[in-house]
Amino acid sequence: MMREKAVVFGPHRTLVGVWTEARDPANSIDVPAVIILNSGLVPHTGIWRLHVRLARALATIGVPSLRFDLSGIGDSEPPRDALPLEQIVRRDIDAAATYAREAQGIGRLVTLGLCSGARDALATAGRRDDVSGLVAIDLVADLRTWQFKAVDIGGRLLNLESWTNTLTGRNRRMESLVRMVTGGEAAPADDREPTEVAAGVRTMLTRDDLASQLAPLVDRGTRLLFLYSAGLEENYNHRAQFEEALPDLAKAPEVEVDFFPKANHTFEEPAQQRALIARITRWCAEAFGTSD
Question: CA-CA distance, 160 to 173, in Å (whole number)?
């Protein structure tokens, strides 16, 4: 039987979350706990209650989890000191790891997050040797390739709305394409990268940055699952793109990648959310030997 309980932890007991116990804790001693991180300012329930449903699904296959709010988000108190955000996030996640180890007796972790949460999950995996797995959902990184551009242009050429917007002056990308083909001057470019506009972030990982962070994880045998939605269309738009951008890493046995062509960035549609949860639980069962 699955059990959930509200927990308070951290150096000053200011962090609040929910611990979801594995269905059969006695058979889950060697299974890592999944630390589920906030996506932006969305509380620990997750967008469209994704984190709640995911935690409960993991419990049914014997995987415990902690979904919690970083300082200043949801139920957790604001930070008591004026540290940079990166340091606060790092300290909070370390406190969650300490809770899993000291209060629950679990020394291995899987870090999981969507968008900004994926970025925090990756950073944590890179600096903590007790992280055995990483699940990064819609991690914003520059993985655009010539194949990405071909798929992007092809889709827009076949899209009636794109042509309508072009003819009415509302489609900057199609306008630039037409100007390029006809030899005209390119339209003025937005100073920001397209992914920055779409995802609302200031910076994104370069391909080299991502590769340099992933290589040590692969070398130490960390299991890695990258999941992408069609909602990142400005940055990621087809199933083979990760392999095209990072071929050496993609072929490593520790790395798995999947693409959800019908999902938006928040996995709002119930069927797509269920598919996402099923993919993650299947990966956990296979990677860590739990029952499915």
Answer: 14
Query: What are the distances in angstroms from CA 132 to CA 118, 190, 247, 256?
Result: 15, 40, 22, 14
- Best CA proximity match to 116, nearest among 34, 25, 249, 205: 205
What is the rounded CA–CA span in Å between residue 20 and residue 5? 7
Paired tokens of 113: 């997050």
Instruction: Output the CATH code of domain 4-142+202-288.
Output: 3.40.50.1820
Q: What is the mean pLDDT of the chain?
A: 87
Q: Which two tokens stand for residue 216?
A: 């040590």
- Helix or strand or coil: residue 57? helix
Residues of the chain above pLDDT 70, percent: 81
Q: For residue 291, how many C-alpha atoms fall within 13 Å in the half-sphere facing its CB? A: 9
Q: Give the tens place of pLDDT for each residue, 230-242.
A: 999 889 999 999 9
Nearest CA among 23, 29, 38, 51 for reference residue 85: 38
Can you give the length of the chain in residues?
A: 292
* Location of each CATH 3.40.50.1820 domain in the chain: 4-142+202-288
Q: What is the dihedral of CA 234, 235, 238, 241, to 10 degrees?
A: 160
Q: Report the distance separating Cα 210 and Cα 122, nearest Å.
A: 9
Q: pLDDT per residue over 178-230, tens digit each?
A: 554 555 544 444 444 433 333 344 478 999 999 999 999 999 999 999 999 99
